[in-house]
Amino acid sequence: MIQPTTTLFKKFAVLLPLFLVFCFSSANGAPFQSSNGPGGGNMPEDIATFQQSMRAKMQAKMQNQQRRKIQDMMSGVPDSVLKLQSIEPVRMPSIEEAVALALKAGAEAATPLIDTNFHNNGKTITVPDDFPTIQQAIDAAESGDTVIVKAGIYFEQLVMKDGIKLISDPSDRGDDLIMVADARIKLPKRALRTIIDGSKSQPSKHGMIDFDPGVGRKSIIDGFTIQNLPMQNHHIPGHAHGLNVRGASPVIANCLIQNMGSTGIGSHVVYNDQENRISERDFRWANIKHQASAVLYNNIIRNSVGLGIGCNHFSSPFILGNEVFNNSDSALGETPSPGMGNKHGSFATIIGNIVHDNPGGGIMAKTGAPQGKYGIDRQTHPIIRNNVIYDNGNKKPGISCKNAGTRETPIIINNNYVYRATGVGIGLSKNSVGIVEDNMVMHSQGPNISINDSIALKLNRNKVLGLENAPGITIVNGSTVYEMTGNAVENGTLPRFMVDQNSEVKEAGR
Question: What confidence score (pLDDT) does residue 149 get?
Fold first, then answer.
């Protein structure tokens, strides 16, 4: 007798799971192989083990869901916004993997900014063959010329002209990339054997290399060790930087910049009334005479008595693929400065850098102290993207912004990797306005991401792995977040998010 179709289907449905288990086991030898040898086996025991494993996984999943539900009940985030966040597991890359990604991003950003053809038709001057000193060769050169410096130590402080390419001698495999002690990035061999040294100089307003105001991108310095600027206090007006990029926009690449008695590289514009007393000067945007938009690529800046790189007074450098570490002005009795600093209206583009072990923190943007007879009339607003930042200072942030950015020109903090900040991982504070997206932040001692008395126009797709010292993402002290989606936070038993009663996250659709 033929059974009804429905009855057959029911029997097939009952037997289907065992049939699939049998097929999978026979075809692959897993996951239900017997320990009793070929031809043997005890399928019921294997199925029981599998079922127990699945129950354990389901129980763990339910516990995680329940924990997350309890965490989110305490968060203060509207349910409609919580539904837009991610529950995917957070997997941070290793620092080595992040460094490789960052350096690639830095190289891609630098390539279109550096002209490799302009100097091909100029004449070549060699030091010391044609001139005994580098400065004499620069003075004799014309726009489009190249000055090649042979290996050796040159006790000079230089002034660069526009259109000159100053490069270390690439002969004898000088372009081979080699590791530098204690650093992560590589430099060409020629950079380590060609040294410009200031140890025989006296403190003055001159850096190791100054640039004539108005110098542009056709002025290139490539492949030197530049070191030992005499000690001075970089907090006092009139000080020198290791490289003074004032009112100039050169390219500085492949250099080891170390042991400077001030900030390693300092950048700011030149004003029309530059020679006036500071109290009488006009530091507003309209009074700029020479812009400062240098390209700083693949340099190592370390052991400065100041910042590694300082961006001041409306400067807009491209800081790409550099390594900045062990820079501190604590010897001056000051609170240590960060590895990179931005203030007084500067708007640097900071991509693909490795910033670590700076006692004053990683990358900072702020307003700056009042100067002159008028205030700075534009807020500091850097772009901070694809950088790797770790192990900076005691109770110091990875990326910190104070009273910086506006709705029209927000700070942009995207795609950064921040590890082990001893304070906040990424922070907007004191009336800052920013966009914080696609960052990965792990094991900060404070909140991994903090919006404090500030505005986040976008707070999206960030990944956070917390230490249970603080909520993963905090929005406090009258802050407002206008868009918040796709953030994945793993934070143990503490809340993933925390919004205080004075702050607001705009709900979806509002």
Answer: 98
